[in-house]
Amino acid sequence: MGGSRTCEDGLHSFQHIYGARQQLPCSVIIDGGSGYCKYGWSNFDRPSGRFPTFLAYGNIENPMYNSLMDFFTTIYERLAAKPSLQPVVISTPICHYDETEVATAARRNLRHVTHKVLFSMGVKAICAVDQAVLALIAAKQTSGIVVNIGFQLTSVVPIRHGKIMRNAGVEVIGQGALQLTAHLCELMQQNGISFDNITIVKALKERLCYVAQDYDAELSRNTEATCILNNQGEFKLSHERFMACEIMFQPYLGGLRTMSLQQAVALCIEHCVQITDDVDIPWFNTIVLAGGSSSLPGLGERLKKELRKMLPHQISQNLTVISPTNGAELAWSGAKLLSNVSCFEETWCIKKKEFIKHGQKILDAKACS
User: Fold this and answer.
1) In CA terms, which of 161, 212, 248, 304 is 20 to 30 Å from 146?
2) CATH code at position 128
3) Does some domain include residue 202?
């Protein structure tokens, strides 16, 4: 790769993201996932638009690959962008870099898409970054544990100095935003609350639901609240508001056979402790919540409370949980920060000549994950 530098060599640490920002030609950002795809310009504060990938393409396991070229074409048309004038940043899921069949296929498809984007569309340069790393960047942290509550899965990802600590272990929980919405749907049906479609339930979850700090005590409180949805009338919820979210901490309440959120995070922390030296002990003390459901009121406080019960005092007393105001756009915000670094194109982007010369090796070398 000649003189190009990678995230791993430490010469371009994430401090550059906060200290070396300057006015640069803007980039196109595409934050795709199994639920929704957000896209826009790096010089905007928020995404310009989004569309549901699970409805458009059906494949909620890995929708960003079979139809990613369709995504690119659609997004560039909507943004009226000229591919040859600016680089593109795309987020990638954590599953890319393990050794499973799905991950191997994902890497192969990403290589294929990179080739198509560079050579068929003529995009100036492409940068693929893990969603968890982008969330950490958005939280202005260089190290920590990212809890990404996705559409169907939740991942707990330890990151040290911008590098995912795969030897510490990435925990994956078999539930996400989809299961929370489905459980709220069941609770509403059980209590005779009628609705026309699942979109209404999702809107009610986002506006009325919260995480109880003490589930049993909350059951004895009056928690009734109302919400008026345009063209749908008024909806009134009570205990459903926090019961729907409780399955994150007590999955069996929703009929799920998976680890609880606090179990997965505690297990990740225990693994991090085993590989940590005395000089860098605090690196895993910061927990960053990401994903749309991470913005649920009370989630950060409850997670911290549960972890204090499970972990030794010398570890739990220093934990900090960062809850985003808009978790659904956290990875997008991280991509915006990254793409505005002065050394962005040189350090993280892949161009035609590099891809021709190095192929998959350049994808691995320039991956911030």
Assistant:
1) 212
2) 3.30.420.40
3) yes
* Residue 216: other Cβ atoms inside 10 A: 7
pLDDT digits (tens, 9 = 90+) for 251-308: 999 999 999 999 999 999 999 988 877 666 688 999 999 999 999 999 999 999 999 9
| pLDDT over threshold 90, residue 146 | yes
For residues 126 and 114, the answer to whether their CB atoms sit within 8 Å is: yes
Residue 283 burial (CB count, 10 A): 20
Range 24-53 burial, b when 16+ CB lie within 10 A, else e: bebbbbbbbbbbbbbbbbbeeeebeebeeb
Quick one: tokens of 152? 């169907």
Cβ atoms 48, 75 nearer than 8 A: no
C-alpha angle with apex 152: 147 to 156, nearest 5 degrees? 20
| Distance, C-alpha 346 to centroid of its chain | 25
In degrees to the nearest 10, what's the CA dihedral of 198, 199, 204, 207? 150
Is position 253 within any domain?
no
List the structure tokens of 56: 């458009």
